[in-house]
Structure to design on (78 residues):
């Protein structure tokens, strides 16, 4: 796949750490933090999606479920 550059693990870690710091510092949600940061630096959301670590994916998914943006996953009682 010539022309497609996948992000390095270090780039993912730096991006995700910055988003987490932004969430904690400004007391905003993960989705808002990502979109705000992308707008600020002129980064396409699609590119940002390649920079998100699994931890951040879980936080964004949890936030989206809580805001009814995505369907809740049914959990069986234990």
């Amino acid at each position: 796949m010539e022309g497609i550059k996948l992000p390095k693990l270090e780039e993912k870690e730096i991006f995700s750490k910055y988003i987490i710091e932004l969430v904690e510092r400004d007391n905003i949600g993960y989705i808002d933090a990502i979109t705000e940061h992308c707008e600020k630096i002129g980064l396409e959301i699609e590119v940002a999606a390649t920079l998100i670590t699994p931890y951040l994916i879980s936080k964004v998914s949890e936030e989206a479920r809580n805001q009814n943006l995505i369907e809740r996953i049914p959990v069986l009682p234990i």
